[in-house]
Amino acid sequence: MRVHLHPQRRTVELAGRRTVATLLRDLEVLPGTAMVIRGDVLLLDSETVEDDDEIEIRHVISGGAA
Amino acid sequence: MKCVRCRARPEVYLRAHNAAFCRPCFVGWFQRQVERTIAAERMCTAGDRILVAVSGGKDSLALWDALVALGHRTTGFYLAQGISGYSQRSRQKVEAFALGRGLELRVHDLADEGLEVPGVAAATRRSPCSACGTLKRHFFDQAALEGRFDVLATGHNLDDEAARLLGNLLRWQTTHLVRQRPVLEPRHAAQVRKVRPLFLLGEYETAVYAFMRGIDSVVEECPNAEGATQLLYKDALNRIEAASPGSKLSFVREFLRTGQAFFAAGAPHEEGPPGSCERCALPAFGRLCAHCRLVIEVERRRGGGTPAASV
């Protein structure tokens, strides 16, 4: 699968189906700090991502506010 | 797992609340949280004119969207800070958001006064974040005053508040702890009430709301935020949150409910109300406000040229 990481603008290729929770752990992303998006839908930690999926991981933590 | 409200397939699970929601139910939950916070903290009443400070990021645009959905009278205010391409991209996001929804937006460009954040930081040898904070406070106050708004609302979320609280505690900054509230009443005739309606909603929750509402916000981080202390505190808090969901919420909420009173009771050195700045007439502790001191320093270091005395 192809995983696009934002705002890092980095793309990684991973092989093998896994749960979203495992995907986040593999990429060392803390729970609750990023949205996992497939198409235009958010994925829950318990959902499975497949080899042919295109996934976006969008980090939500910012350094300041308005 | 099912949506806690309608039993449909959920799209988001909030660990801190142990609750899953489908898209429509999450949007409704988020807006109700904002409404409840506004009512519980007496942030504003129906009919108040609210100036919403917007940066182009998810939090401030989510706040503006929610306030409009709840029927509040709002105007957006964007301060163009002159930070390389980042400010241009964030301004485009804000303008597109306002235009697409038919909302009133006011823009103040620091370049008009030669006060772009990178230039001010370089001239005064301050950190960009310090210069930015001083400039924002001044121009937010000025815009609220000039527009005769009742309330100034900012998009600070739970993670911002928790990181700020941790930073204040690590340094035992008691005067800051006493004033860390979601509502700051005006202490000067040239101030309006300042409110933070998202202070109990986490950064993940505001991001999900913005995503579900189709809000096109700046995804990239401000280039000056890299290595910012606030990010270090947020990371530490998120590691605690991962092991113990709900920690950030109870940290902030219980501080306000119980902890803050101890600091308020023993704060003999809390500042009294501010006077008026001799130069701009906005609130000041001393002859000049922090903003005017900054501008004068910039003028001096630049040899008396720009910025213009437009404060």
Number of helices of chain B: 11
- Biggest sheet strand order of chain A reads 2-1-7-4-5
Identify the overall geometry of chain A.
globular
Strand order of the biggest β-sheet of chain B:
5-4-3-6-8-7
Largest sheet of chain A: 5 strands, mixed
Please report which band the strand proportion of chain B falls in: under 5%, 5-15%, 15-25%, 25-35%, 35-45% or over 45%: 5-15%
Largest sheet of chain B: 6 strands, mixed
Overview of the molecule:
The complex is a heterodimer of chains A (66) and B (311). Chain A is mainly β and 66 residues long. Chain A has one helix at 20-26, and strands at 2-6, 10-13, 18-19, 34-38, 41-42, 48-49, 54-59. Chain A has 1 helix and 7 strands, in the order E-E-E-H-E-E-E-E. Chain B contains 11 helices and 10 strands. Chain B has helices at 23-40, 58-69, 84-101, 117-124, 128-146, 158-170, 174-179, 203-212, 229-243, 247-265, 290-301; strands at 12-14, 19-21, 49-53, 73-80, 105-109, 151-153, 183-184, 193-195, 275-276, 283-284. In chain B, the strands form 3 sheets. A 6-stranded mixed beta sheet of chain B has the order 5-4-3-6-8-7, sandwiched between helices. The mean pLDDT of chain B is 93. Chains A and B meet through strand 5 of A and helix 2, helix 5, helix 8 and helix 9 of B.
